[in-house]
Amino acid sequence: xxxxxxxxxxxxxxxxxxxxxxxxxxxxxxxxxxxxxxxxxxxxxxxxxxxxxxxxxxxxxxxxxxxxxxxxxxxxxxxxxxxxxxxxxxxxxxxxxxxxxxxxxxxxxxxxxxxxxxxxxxxxxxxxxxxxxxxxxxxxxxxxxxxxxxxxxxxxxxxxxxxxxxxxxxxxxxxxxxxxxxxxxxxxxxxxxxxxxxxxxxxxxxxxxxxxxxxxxxxxxxxxxxxxxxxxxxxxxx
Length: 238
Known about the structure:
Layout: H1 2-13, E1 18-22, H2 25-28, H3 50-53, H4 56-61, H5 63-73, H6 83-93, E2 97-102, H7 108-112, E3 117-119, E4 122-129, E5 135-137, H8 138-143, E6 156-160, H9 169-181, E7 184-188, E8 209-212, E9 225-227, H10 231-235
Parallel strand pairs: 1-2, 1-7, 2-3, 7-8, 8-9
Antiparallel strand pairs: 4-5, 4-6
């Protein structure tokens, strides 16, 4: 692994056009559970399956039950950025990292200092009234009970992409633009199992595709460098 770290370090030192594409594994090292691992949310027992609770239909029909799960399992407001978040923010300040494309909704990249963060699945930090669009901070959601309502009486919804909802086209287009022009594309902490997000890597045209993940992914055979290790552990050595 030392040789692979050295090679990655060499590539990064020689580049000013890095794009990072990350998933849940970037946040698990900050104590935020993922969905699909042995200890993930999908393998825990609830009254309804998590993928059902986190759907657009369920949100509209069983809003109170949605928020009971959401407050308990989806909000981790005390989580702190880890070595991966901090290194990416450092690279951006140095003019090396052009953008972070993330499937995570926790806002930890911004908390670490990254500015150009494209959140494919939205963010728990943003919430809005479905009737008048008034914004509400996440603290209002976290400390409340039952269904959060706006001063106008409308239901407040988190600005996260639920199952059955489409991704924001502007975010997708910007992500494609950054990835297609990148010198180095680093994919980290994702099983590349969630589409359409995982399909974005198909737009990469360079010859320095790096995959950092604890377990193998469907894209390993396409990558120019594969490191099977926790991403925080790898980035702390760069």
